[in-house]
Specification:
The chain is mostly beta strands. Helix content is about 5%, strand content about 45%. It is built from 1 helix and 23 strands. The strands form 3 sheets. Strands 1, 2, 3, 5, 6, 9, 12, 14, 16, 18, 20 and 22 form a 12-stranded parallel beta sheet that branches. A 9-stranded parallel beta sheet has the order 4-8-11-13-15-17-19-21-23.
């Protein structure tokens, strides 16, 4: 490999979790670099995740196809398929581009999260990613040991039929931008959402931008976008395509974490919302009784 450039095929063909991890770890040892993997590599994940070190990029090469980059086996039982390697607040820059994650739920795989990010504190980006059919969440951003996350940029992300939240960010002080999201859901459940942002008690989530969001749902119990105890968020450009069953709410803004008068959510901007389809009358619900303000 050239300096800073690593090709997964050089470490084993067919590519396995172990061989890919060797390439990623070598990039880390080299003080960072880019690991290239074919977008249709169909790396089989059964009992361990692929861990992205710091500061390393994982990039899919070539056009996507019917084969995913990563697929859970029918007997898989994993907490995550892809995750950051250092989850103690020391994970800095990382990036993932042009990959397809298949949770393979219909075949019996148990995948808690497709892509899990814990306490990634330096500016990082994730783009051109498809996550589908995980039994749990599609993408989850959270914090450990009191460390915040972000800023994180997610761009051109497609989340399809993940069993719980398609995208969820929880914890303190996260700075997240979601742009060009395509979300399709058939069955998630009450309290779940296409996009969910949840703050922690006494500390609301900060500085979120959601723009260019397309939501297509056939789950009458789940929300399109759910903000709970979140501050300084902008929702700009959401199109909802309804079905005969529709959504519980298109946008729900509540305050269950911070408490009345304790950093209550505020500074929420909502604009450019459009709807079509059989259940286009989804509502926007604001919990004004618990201090939520919308501008």
């Amino acid at each position: 490999s050239r300096a800073g450039i690593f090709y997964a095929e050089d470490y084993g063909n067919p590519i396995t979790v172990a061989s890919l991890q060797t390439a990623l770890d070598e990039a880390e040892t080299a003080s960072g670099g880019t690991v290239y993997v074919p977008t249709t590599a169909n790396v089989q994940i059964s009992n361990t995740s692929v861990k992205i070190p710091n500061p390393v990029r994982l990039v899919g090469t070539g056009k996507g196809g019917t084969l995913p980059t990563f697929q859970a086996t029918s007997t898989a039982n994993v907490s995550a398929m892809i995750e950051n390697k250092s989850q103690d607040g020391t994970q800095g820059y990382m990036a993932i581009e042009n990959i397809f994650i298949d949770g393979n739920e219909d075949a019996g795989a148990v995948v808690t999260v497709g892509l899990k990010l814990v306490s990634v504190f330096s500016p990082s980006y994730f783009r051109d990613i498809l996550v589908r059919d995980c039994s749990g969440d599609g993408i989850r951003v959270t914090n450990a040991s009191g460390f915040g996350s972000g800023p994180l940029l997610f761009q051109n992300i497609q989340l399809i039929n993940n069993g719980l939240d398609n995208f969820i960010a929880t914890g303190t002080g996260s700075n997240i931008a979601l742009r060009m999201y395509h979300i399709e859901s058939s069955s998630q459940g009450t309290g779940k959402a296409g996009i969910k942002l949840v703050g922690a008690a006494g500390m609301v989530q900060m500085a979120h931008v959601l723009s260019g969001i397309y939501i297509e749902s056939a789950d009458a119990t789940a929300d399109g976008i759910l903000l709970d105890s979140v501050a300084n968020a902008s929702i700009d450009g959401v199109h909802y395509v309804g079905s005969s069953t529709g959504l519980a709410q298109l946008i729900r803004i509540i305050n269950t974490q911070a408490g009345v008068g304790n950093n209550a959510p505020s500074g929420i901007t909502i604009r450019n919302i459009s709807m079509s389809g059989a259940s286009a009358l989804a509502n926007i619900i604001v919990d004004t009784a618990h201090g939520v303000t919308v501008t």
